[in-house]
């Protein structure tokens, strides 16, 4: 992508980062997709459920891609801009959007749902998931895995050895079992990311705010300039995301 450093940084800083749509990155960055097709599998499960809960729905884009919803369909979200975006997408589809902090307890009765789902939840409260699931109900989700995009994160923050263990699927499945759930399926993937200009980096770090907490262009301008020169000299900046698909059942 052509453009000088200041111009590219200004583009990334001016871009709209509301919602959870990454189409602004087209031509600037690419990410390999997981092989299991989460959205399609989610749609299949929603079509046969009787009561569903999507936790931390973000802007509702993934949930809204389903063609059918159960008679009772609920989504939760904590971030006000996402709540408004999700409501706009999901209310016409008959899905109730509940503003809820990402802390327990979930504002629902015991055994209220036969399907609980989530795509890339920031926090996972297994005891609450187990509590709101009916006997025989399913938790079906795609989680971010350990050390995801750490090539980029550590470029700005330096080595993060302790954080690299976070979100490990072995730890998550152990916690799910401790909450009384049975693991039905677990699949893992490591996926290539190519970042073609520094505007994409600014956009991503403004949007995915937990990657480099407190990120501002001013605070990290020197490091952004280092990355710009690196991309100019060597081509796209390569990172890797990690994902795992997890299905758990309440016996």
């Amino acid at each position: 992508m052509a453009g000088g450093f200041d111009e590219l940084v200004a583009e990334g800083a001016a871009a709209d980062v509301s919602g959870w749509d990454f189409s602004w990155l087209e031509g600037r960055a690419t990410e390999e997709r997981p092989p299991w097709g989460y959205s399609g599998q989610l749609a299949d499960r929603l079509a046969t459920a009787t009561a569903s809960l999507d936790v931390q729905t973000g802007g509702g884009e993934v949930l809204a891609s389903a063609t059918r919803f159960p008679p009772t369909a609920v989504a939760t979200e904590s971030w006000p801009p996402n709540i408004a975006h999700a409501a706009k997408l999901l209310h016409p589809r008959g899905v109730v959007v509940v503003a809820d902090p990402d802390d327990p307890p979930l504002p629902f009765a015991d055994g209220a749902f036969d399907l609980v789902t989530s795509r890339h939840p920031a926090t996972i409260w297994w005891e609450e998931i187990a509590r709101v699931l009916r006997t025989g109900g399913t938790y079906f989700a795609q989680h971010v895995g350990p050390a995801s995009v750490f090539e980029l994160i550590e470029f700005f923050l330096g080595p993060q050895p302790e954080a690299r263990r976070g979100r490990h699927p072995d730890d998550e499945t152990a916690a799910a079992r401790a909450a009384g759930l049975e693991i039905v399926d677990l699949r893992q993937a490591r996926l290539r990311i190519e970042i073609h200009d520094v505007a994409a980096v600014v956009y991503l770090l403004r949007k995915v705010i937990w990657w480099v907490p407190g990120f501002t262009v001013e605070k990290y301008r020197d490091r952004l300039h280092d990355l710009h020169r690196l991309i100019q000299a060597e081509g796209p900046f390569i990172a890797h995301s990690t994902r795992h698909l997890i299905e758990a059942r309440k016996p």
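The beta strands are 29-31, 51-54, 72-77, 96-99, 113-119, 133-144, 182-195, 237-249. Residues 172 and 206 are 28 Å apart (CA to CA).
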